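Subject: sequence -> structure tokens, single chain

Hey, anyone have a minute? Need the predicted structure for the following. Not urgent.
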Amino acid sequence: MNKNTLHIALVGNPNSGKSSLFNALTGLNQKVGNFPGVTVDKKTGVSQLAPGLSVNIVDLPGTYSLYPKRADEWVTYKVLLNQDPSVRADMVVLLVDASNLKRNLLFCSQIIDLKIPVVIALTMMDLAAQKGIVIDVDGLERELGIPVVAVNPRKNKGIPQLKKTVELRARQLNLAPPRAFIDNHMLAAGAIHDVKQLFPEISDYTAIHYLINHEHFDLPEGHLIETIETTHAFNHTRIQADEILQRYGRIKQIMQHTVSEPDPLQKTLFTERLDKLFLDRTWGYIILLAVLFLLFQSVFWIAQFPMDAIDWTFSRLGGWLGHALPESWWSDLLVNGLLAGLSGIMVFVPQIMILFGLITVLEDTGYMARISFLTDKLMRKVGLNGKSVMPMISGFACAVPAIMSARNIENRKERLLTILITPLMSCSARLPVYTILIALVIPRKEVLGIFSLQGLVMMGLYMLGLVMAMIVSYVAKWFIKLKEKSFFILELPVYRAPRWNNVLVTMINKARIFVVDAGKVIMVISLILWALSSFGPGRRSEETARYDRQIQLHPDQAASLQKEKQAARLEYSYAGRLGKVVEPIIKPLGYDWKIGIAIITSFAAREVFVGTMATLYSVEGGKDADQQTLRQRMMSARREDGTPVYTVASGVSLMIFYVLAMQCMSTLAVVRRETRSWKWPAIQLAYMTGLAYVMSLIAYQLLK
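Reply:
Had a minute. Here:
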């Protein structure tokens, strides 16, 4: 270790404020990677404790004890047992939730007995005070024999004191370790003695874990530990039970000396009163549906005004540039390629910001965890559990991080089912498609005088994805043959006011990610489409020359002939040829060749649909289209027989296709990464595309 660089592991129970403290200590000096061999995020950051003392901090996944069950808990466990070659912890900062002190002290006592240098960051002191809990911090420090600092990372309180304490402890790494929390040696004296003969530097408690989990460690003498187990008849279950009982006995004594708690019957917390309503078997579901309904109504209603303003601005700018610039290939590229692509990106930023802002509010207030608890019973009927709800709801924002968040599900079968159905949730990339199609085919009117019909259709599309996900999971559970016990253990965080600063930062970050990441793809595809739409084989030149002659012969019909010329140029371009190839396949769904091009390009990213349409109709309409918004151009689109392209039947069919189809290369890539096989992404692509085609076919044939 570099003498000027300290490696600190940040550990604690889930919901103990670890992420907030990590952000407070590192600020923006952090990066996210992966722990080797497992799909668990590895968050690392740098903090300057004092001049000349730089600290590397790794935020380890939350865990309740040193007996791991999930993949993320194994990551933390191996780092603390010094069995992860990629992460070495010189010291531990352990977060302890003051409002749940008894449970948190179990994990704390285990880390103390590993003899790792440790500092306790005591969080949730404000919540403990609300519960009437009074903690003697100095007394707790004396009893445990390690430094204890009260902090509030959300309000940046106690951070300087914590840094100072960590700095002082860092300068005394070779200090004699604190006394043992319990007498671990007496749990299995003979076996521990023999293991320590092989590894003299480890503590008694570390020796117990070598005996229990040596199969999972890279130990050269692993086979000798197996012999020691047999010789001493080492019983894992009995030793673990004895240890936990002894620890809780000592914790009870410490709490009697240092903690003052009110009578539990004396005070009903605000959180408990709210939970009686929100988790009620009847009212809980009614409130959940109302919350989701208001979420989608708000996304559609609030965003309408800035979206209209952005749409109007780009259409006016396109019209002005179209008339101001000379007629040439580069001006066409600027107006119908670059500007059309850019408008297809910017117009949806308001909806994405509002959707992510509202989801962040639900998470921050603590209601999102209640949704998991509330839906567990329903989820089990289709082969999932309550923890599947979090990835599914996150899937309304983006399937990629949602699928990665399924790592929290311990049961492999339930995790795989969750990964397979999460892309059926309507992500924010589908939002631009829904918005433009709803505006085209669904009238803007009120239902019962207060509810927007367009908002109701939007909610219906989201609910369709959810219902189909449940059906697919129910069917798939019979085909996935993995036998494993399923448990649902979830800690419900207390209700809190949302951190508006956090909400605003999330909204800005998500908008930036959409504009930069999705925007790059949309712009590149828009420019490629412009080229494919503006150039073509020989027949295109012949058609252009024919219309030019017609315009010279019939100048009184120049306007209509010019429109026909632009349509013919597009039809005989490379893009038109591609669309004509797929048209026979998609015609039964009510789509024309232009929609076919949009569907093909959407397999790179769904949101490209709007950019594709903007480019195709800009190229087809020429300078006359520059003055119109995309919606006006699509509304005036006609088939060869003169009927509108976008009717209620074709519009609903197309919306259903986008609800159900797997059109995201990034999602397929992350599914492959999470499942470590191309088998499951292939199954996902096949079943979702097939389902989308069949359901869209049924919808169109019924509605036409």
